[in-house]
Structures are given as structure tokens and as C-alpha cells.
């Protein structure tokens, strides 16, 4: 029998009715003849509640003690789900990550999985049991409790799928798949049947928040198919796969966007690697994440540097940049607090030229000014004025007939 | 440095203010020069909440899965307390029972502690840390999570105290000690400074619900002093000790009572051990606990059996007894749904005769009819009409000048 791993998120575990609904889906998979391993998150809102309990005690809870309290949420979920499955007449057994032996490094709050002991899991599956495992958490070799960071249950599910050589990992969530663009922006966006790992990585890194980035990286590395689907229906969702051959050939798979961006420009400084390093070290030392970077040559000796940051970091980043501008004798330092990022993603671009020029022409035809451009072999990212992002996403979605 | 174990119950952990208050008490003990190990319960009400979550899923949750969910309550408490102690500038570390290695048998919901691994505890204490351990829970050799039953945190604390050869176990609760009688019944009842283990066992078994019975048994067996005291003050509470010599010699240490009793009498049956065994096997097979038992001889061949049960079991017990009465050809089967138990307890009785006669005379003088009497070498239990219990407790409390 093939093993499938199912992962249910917090909204699927929010209350007793939800838990019973999940139990039915799990039992149905078992009755279809699969060996079923289920990975669950804490009930929706519970992790936030625990964090706020900790914050009532201290502004700076230690990472170890925070993990100690956070790990309880998933433990509640696995117990309730095991009870609900047993109530339906199937045998089930729940395991914490310590019981399984989901071994991580010791980086509290953002631990990485190093190994998974499959002995107990295979034994329980061999006894015909449905196995339920607490996601998001791990344990070090010294039995210290760790957590993998927000969204870490997706990563738990993929890692367990890999360890058990599962046929696929089903990730159940509150959307029914991955869309060619955000349906709130593009009304005729449609759910994709397939997407490649590489495309999904670009989508996840560019605003499509349906899958935890690390889980996709892990799936890609181990060629573990992910089936992202809705926990509220039985409809097929989107498969994330390595098999381009199976997919319809398209130039562009989808358009992702983010609107929480701000842009800063340091104009006309000496083009030395020392200067460029100083800029990004200063920003990074202030714990500000830089996203898109462009550098424009004025001549061989002088350049203009632009970069984007999250809008909530804009004021601090602009202040630091003005200071840098003075030190580096820049002509000018200025910013735009409201820009957006539009990302055109598709493995088809690799082998087909002219996609970028079609993007630029399309945006020009629709009077969208492109502020910055950055490209990889499967991703063209355009930074535009925030007011223009919807127009840009719709225009590109139409241009490539998604 | 001497090790002391402190145990705080659920009301002491109810909210963030309570947790901070406990942290201060713990740090004060550390600053007084002790190595401090703290055992905590789940926040008040949280265990009940978890049980009701389980009951929403199924009427009959499996013992294993119930333990899985119940163990989360103490895990939340240990984490918050460790954070609160660190916020006060002392180093602290929390451990689940699985992390320590509090090994129990596999009887879910009522497990017994078999062994405690002290390695991690002694190492952390050696590093100057305050050690915080989840009470109530244990783990089998196979890492199955177990719980010790309601009130089990007291037992956890004593077992840890014994394993660490602690100087004493302080049990913090919402009363300030053990009283010579229930102060709600006897206004001039006073807190005792000392009580022996044996007396405490009789008190705990006779309605004084301040300490979990198993914890006292374990302390007695290992001669581990318990100091029962209030978590809301620094006042000395009551020491439970083996050292009679240190205590003021008294005939009677205290008067305990219960009011939730009912009495059943099966009158005039053949005096055979087979008959007596049949009666108590029938009642016990129905999962009804029998408390006080007396048998009165009518002549050498015929006896009358009386016993008490909890009031909520009265109807079922009476029905079974009437059936038994018919089979055993009893003259009559009758009951009293409302009786009370008054227990006079003191190790001084062992060596002093005449206590029982003083009790009977005292009650007679106050017009309290004694329905049943049962005695051990340190306990005289009188069953009286429920309306008379307060009069009886007050009269005896005065008679022995408690």
C-alpha cells in the first residue's frame, strides 16, 4: 500500500466540528486503501494566544521557553484528531515529535529538521493504524523541544513524507489551489492543475503565501510531489511537481504580486565595491530586509543604487540612506513609500526569448511606468507605482492568456 | 546547599499575575541559599477545559489520547514560570516529565511513578539554575505520555523530593495549613504546626482534602517532610513529619468530617463468610465504593450488616441491597440517605486508653446519637445523622481542648 501524508492547518483544527470534518477526510483516505499519516497544526489562534500569554510575563521570552509553550498547541490537535478518528471506528495513534524522534538542530523558534526516526511510524502503520503527528515541532538529540517557525507544519509534512518515501504529500488549506494570479485582483484568474517546484518557489517568494517556502525547497530537493487542496471540499487542487513533461507547455505560469513595498534611491555615487558593500551592510545591520536591488550606471565610475524594503521599514531605511548619501557624496537620496512588485513566473521563459520585451511593451501600452526590473531565468520582477499594480497584473494576465 | 522542592497548584498558576507572584516566592527561596526545584500544576480550570474539549469529540476518549491532551496544561505552566523567573534575573529551566525521565507504569489517567532520572536535574542545579518540572505527568519507558490522576502534582513533588534527597517538600496551596477541624464548622479551630504522617493519612482519608492521599503515603514511606502552606503569604503552615518527639503530645490531633454519606443496613442474616463476601462483591462489582462497615451480632449465627456509601450511590446501592436481602432472607433492608462521618484522629490514642469512651460520653451529653462506630489505633470514626454533624464536631473539638 502506498503511504500518503496529509497536512491540515490551524483553520482545519479550529474547533470540534472542524476536527470531526478532518477525521472524516482522513478515514476516507484510509478506506480508499492508503496508509495514512496526518500532520496537524495548532488550532487556529491558539499559537497567538500562547505568544500573548508569554508576552504578559516578559517582553523577551527565551527561545527555549517559548518553544516549550508553543509546542502544546499541536499536542492538543493530535490528541483531539486521534479521538475523532477512533470515534469513527478506525484505529489511530498520535505522536509528539519527541515521541517520533523528529530530530532538529538547536536553533529555537527556527529549528531545521536533521533526521526523522521512522520506526514507530512504520510499526503503527503496519498495525493498520492511522498515524497522527504534531507538526511545527521537533526535538534535539538532548530532548530539547524546538519549533520550526511559522508555517513550519508544511515543512514537517514534507520531511515526514520524504522519510517515509510517501507517494505524495497532501497539504489541506483554506484555498482550493494555486492561482494564475490573485483572484481578488484578477477576476478571471484560474486555479492551476500543475506547477513546477521552481515556479512554486518563485511564487512563494513573490507574495503567494499558500505554501511555506522551506517546505517547497525540501520537496524540490527530494522530488516529493505536493498536492495543495482545500480542506472544505474534495476537489483536486494544484500539484507541485518536478515533471514539466506532464504539464501543458506555457510561457508564463502565473503572476504574483506584493503591495507592501517601498523604494529608496541613492543617486550618483562612486562605483566601488566598497561603497556598495557599505550600503547593504548598514541596512542589514539595522535588521532591515532588502528585496529587489538595481544599479544603474551613469558612467563607468558613477552609479545610482535603488532597492526596495517593506513599507514598515521605510522611514528607518530612508534615514540610514540619507546618512549614507552624505558620507558617499551622493547627488541625491530619495524614496517612494508606496510601490508594488509584480512578478511574472514560468519555466517556459528559460527556453523562449522575448518574454521580457512582451512584458515591457504590455505595461507601456497600459501606461504603467516600470520603476525597477530584476530577472532570473524563470522570473521577471517589475517594481511599479502602488496605484498601478492591479492594472499591471490584469494586463499581463491577459497578455499571456493565462 | 540543601535542595527544597516547592509545589504550586493550579490556583497559584491561574493567570500572569499569579505566575509572577510564584516566581517571586521561588526566587526568594533561592536567595535564602537553597537549591530550588519547583513542581507546578496546570493553570486552574485548564484541565477541565481540556477534558470538555475531548468530550466534545467523543463520550469515551481513550486513556492514552486523554493523557496526551491533559499533559499540555502543565507544560504551559512550566514555560511561563521559567520566563517569569528569568525576568526577575535568576536563571531557570523548565522540563516536561519526558525530558526529566519521570518513568511511570502504563496505566493511563492513573499511572504510578516507578523511577525518576535525576541527571538533568542535578546538572541544572549544579549550574545554579532553578529547575521547574511539570507535575501530574509521567512517561513510560516507551515514551508514552501518562498522567497520575487528579491531585497527582502533590505526588510528583514528593517523588521528586525523595529522588533528590531534598530537605523538605513545600506544598503551596490556597489554605494556610491543616486545621484541627474544618474552620467553617468550628470557628475556634486552629492551624496545627505539626501533624504526623499517619494522622495526615487518616485526615486525608476522612474529608480533609488539602493533600493528595498518595503523596502522603509516599512521603511517609520515605520519611520526607512536607510543609503545607499558603501561596498567598509567607506564614509558616503545617509540617507533616514522622517525628512525634518534636511535637507537643496530644491525645487528639484533629477532627475531620464528611457529610456526603448514606447508610444501608441489611438486618438479620445468616452469619457466614460466604454471605458477607456476596454482599460486598455485589456492591463492588457495581463500582460503588463502600466506606465504613459494621457488623452487629444478633447471636452467634445471625448478624446485621451496615455500611456507608456516597450519597450519589445511595439509590443504586439500596436497590442492590434489597435484592441481596431477599436472596439472603434478611428480616429487613433499610437505609438513611443522609448521614455524616465524624473522625477523631491522633497518634496519642495509641498509648492512651479511654479516648473512645470520652468520645461516646461527649456525644451522648450533646444528644448526638451514634449510628455506627469504626476504630483504628489512631482514628475513631462515628457515623451520625447528617443534621448532627456540626454539633458533634464542635463538641469533640471542645472536649479535647484542640
UniProtKB/TrEMBL annotation, chains A, B:
The ACT domain, residue ranges: 344-402
**UniProt cross-references to PROSITE patterns, sorted A to Z:** ACT, ASPARTOKINASE
Catalytic reaction list: L-aspartate + ATP = 4-phospho-L-aspartate + ADP
Extract the InterPro entries matched here: AceGlu_kinase-like_sf (IPR036393), ACT-like_dom_sf (IPR045865), ACT_Aspartokinase (IPR054352), ACT_dom (IPR002912), Asp/Glu/Uridylate_kinase (IPR001048), Asp_kin_monofn (IPR005260), Asp_kinase (IPR001341), Aspartate_kinase_CS (IPR018042)
The EC number(s) given in the record are 2.7.2.4
- Which pathway does the record list? Amino-acid biosynthesis; L-methionine biosynthesis via de novo pathway; L-homoserine from L-aspartate: step 1/3; Amino-acid biosynthesis; L-threonine biosynthesis; L-threonine from L-aspartate: step 1/5; Amino-acid biosynthesis; L-lysine biosynthesis via DAP pathway; (S)-tetrahydrodipicolinate from L-aspartate: step 1/4
* GO molecular function per UniProt: aspartate kinase activity
Q: Which UniProt keywords apply?
A: Amino-acid biosynthesis, ATP-binding, Diaminopimelate biosynthesis, Kinase, Lysine biosynthesis, Nucleotide-binding, Transferase
What family does the Swiss-Prot or TrEMBL record give for this protein? Belongs to the aspartokinase family.
Question: What job does this protein perform?
Answer: Catalyzes the phosphorylation of the beta-carboxyl group of aspartic acid with ATP to yield 4-phospho-L-aspartate, which is involved in the branched biosynthetic pathway leading to the biosynthesis of amino acids threonine, isoleucine and methionine.
The protein's name is Aspartokinase
Q: Which organism is it from?
A: Fusibacter bizertensis
Amino acid at each position: 500500500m502506498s503511504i500518503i501524508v496529509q497536512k491540515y492547518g490551524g483553520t482545519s483544527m479550529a474547533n470540534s466540528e472542524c476536527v470531526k470534518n478532518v477525521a472524516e477526510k482522513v478515514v476516507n483516505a484510509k478506506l480508499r486503501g492508503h496508509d495514512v499519516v496526518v500532520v496537524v497544526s495548532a488550532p487556529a489562534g491558539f499559537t497567538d494566544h500562547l505568544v500573548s500569554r508569554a508576552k504578559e510575563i516578559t517582553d523577551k521570552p527565551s527561545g527555549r521557553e517559548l518553544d516549550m509553550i508553543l509546542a502544546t498547541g499541536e499536542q492538543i490537535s493530535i490528541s483531539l484528531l486521534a479521538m475523532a478518528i477512533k470515534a469513527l471506528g478506525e484505529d489511530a495513534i498520535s505522536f509528539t515529535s519527541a515521541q517520533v524522534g523528529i530530530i532538529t538542530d538547536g536553533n529555537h523558534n527556527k529549528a531545521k529538521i536533521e533526521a526523522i526516526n521512522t520506526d514507530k511510524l512504520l510499526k503503527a502503520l503496519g498495525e493498520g493504524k492511522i498515524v497522527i503527528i504534531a507538526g511545527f515541532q521537533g526535538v534535539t538529540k538532548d530532548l530539547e523541544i524546538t519549533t520550526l517557525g511559522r508555517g513550519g507544519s508544511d515543512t514537517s509534512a514534507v520531511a515526514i513524507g520524504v522519510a517515509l518515501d510517501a507517494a505524495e504529500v497532501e497539504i489541506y488549506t483554506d484555498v482550493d489551489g494555486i492561482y494564475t494570479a490573485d483572484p481578488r485582483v484578477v477576476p478571471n484568474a484560474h486555479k492551476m492543475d500543475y506547477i513546477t517546484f521552481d515556479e512554486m518557489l518563485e511564487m512563494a517568494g513573490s507574495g503567494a503565501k499558500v505554501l511555506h517556502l522551506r517546505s517547497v525547497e525540501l520537496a524540490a530537493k527530494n522530488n516529493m510531489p505536493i498536492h495543495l487542496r482545500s480542506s472544505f471540499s474534495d476537489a483536486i487542487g494544484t500539484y507541485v511537481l518536478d515533471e514539466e513533461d506532464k504539464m501543458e507547455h506555457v510561457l508564463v505560469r502565473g503572476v504574483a504580486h506584493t503591495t507592501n513595498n517601498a523604494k529608496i534611491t541613492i543617486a550618483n555615487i562612486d562605483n566601488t565595491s566598497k561603497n556598495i558593500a557599505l550600503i547593504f551592510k548598514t541596512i542589514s545591520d539595522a535588521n532591515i530586509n532588502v528585496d529587489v536591488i538595481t544599479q544603474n550606471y551613469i558612467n563607468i565610475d558613477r552609479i545610482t543604487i535603488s532597492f526596495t524594503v517593506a513599507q514598515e521599514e521605510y522611514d528607518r531605511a530612508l534615514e540610514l540612506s540619507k546618512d549614507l548619501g552624505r558620507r558617499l557624496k551622493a547627488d541625491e537620496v530619495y524614496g517612494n513609500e508606496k510601490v508594488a512588485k509584480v512578478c511574472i513566473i514560468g519555466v517556459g521563459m528559460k527556453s523562449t526569448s522575448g518574454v521580457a520585451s512582451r512584458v515591457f511593451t504590455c505595461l507601456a501600452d497600459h501606461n504603467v511606468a516600470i520603476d525597477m526590473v530584476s530577472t532570473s531565468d524563470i522570473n521577471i520582477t517589475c517594481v511599479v507605482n502602488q496605484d498601478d499594480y492591479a492594472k499591471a497584473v490584469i494586463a499581463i494576465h491577459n497578455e499571456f492568456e493565462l
